[in-house]
């Protein structure tokens, strides 16, 4: 495994801080345009935005000179950490009834770090050959986030979990 470069470390810190700041943007600028990239409520699904958009921006900056071969592993890592965010959020908030901000912040930082590590793990010819498919899946996930911002399905992943003891009122 290659050594951690300053470029990657700086990108990790910038992407992680950008996502953390993005969490509060809609509170300060509540409008539909901001809601497309920032969480509009405390649902598990809306919190994908704090991972997806900053990580994608970081990937595009990191791969701007690497060409098409550079993108595949990063896109697969992005899809993997988004899936992990949904799964962990569901298990913790819905199944276990957890309501800890410390857990949420820790999970967020852990998943961002995992994304940077997974990109190195996934960096192989099999993944690079599937860059087009991974790009389509990444675009589809982004499109779903945009669509579900305005038309969220009636499902627990889209339920606003803000407030005290929300686990008691989660619809099953």
UniProtKB/TrEMBL annotation:
Pfam families, A to Z = DUF6512 (PF20122)
**PROSITE patterns for this protein:** PROKAR_LIPOPROTEIN
Specify the signal sequence span: none
TM regions (residue ranges) = 44-62, 74-93, 105-126, 133-151
Instruction: Give the UniProt keywords, A-Z.
Output: Membrane, Transmembrane, Transmembrane helix
Q: Specify the domain of life of the species encoding this protein.
A: Bacteria
| Protein name listed in UniProt | DUF6512 family protein
Please name the source species: Pseudoflavonifractor intestinihominis
């Amino acid at each position: 495994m290659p050594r951690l470069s300053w470029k990657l470390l700086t990108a990790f810190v910038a992407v992680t801080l950008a996502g953390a700041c993005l969490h509060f943007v809609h509170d300060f600028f509540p409008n539909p345009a901001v809601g497309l990239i920032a969480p509009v409520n405390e649902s598990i699904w809306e919190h994908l935005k704090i991972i997806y958009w900053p990580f994608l921006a970081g990937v595009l900056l990191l791969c701007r000179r690497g060409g098409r071969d550079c993108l595949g592993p990063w896109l697969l890592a992005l899809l993997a950490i988004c899936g992990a965010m949904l799964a962990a959020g569901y298990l913790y908030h819905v199944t276990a009834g957890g309501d800890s901000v410390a857990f949420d912040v820790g999970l967020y930082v852990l998943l961002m770090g995992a994304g940077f590590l997974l990109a190195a793990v996934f960096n192989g010819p099999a993944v690079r050959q599937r860059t087009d498919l991974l790009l389509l899946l990444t675009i589809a996930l982004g499109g779903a986030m945009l669509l579900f911002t305005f038309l969220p399905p009636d499902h627990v992943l889209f339920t606003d979990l803000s407030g005290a003891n929300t686990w008691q009122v989660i619809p099953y």
